[in-house]
Amino acid sequence: MIFEWMYWTKPTAIFFLVIFLILVAMTIWQTISPSVERRGFLPLATTPGTRLFIGLLGAAFLHLAWIGLTDLTLWIVFPFALGWMAVVMVWG
Predict the structure, then answer these.
(1) Model-level pTM?
(2) Torsion sign over Cα 36, 42, 43, 49
(3) 84 lies in which domain range?
(4) What is the helix (H) or strand (E) element at residue 38, kind and residue range?
């Protein structure tokens, strides 16, 4: 198979499926109702797509830092990553 090098578990597949569905939903939303750039607490003018990207990137870095610095489960940092995403999407 083409993806034999990666160990696909159910949580991994769900994670990538959710990211894919979020991107599809954002694409449809922006096609139907294009948005204008606005300024929030981020030091640049952003669209919802830009804020989604920044939020996903920040959540990924939170998870990577958690993995690198602790041996605890990722479920502990997951609510913080969701909170970060929500803050960036609403006020970013």
Answers:
(1) 0.78
(2) negative
(3) 10-91
(4) strand 38-39
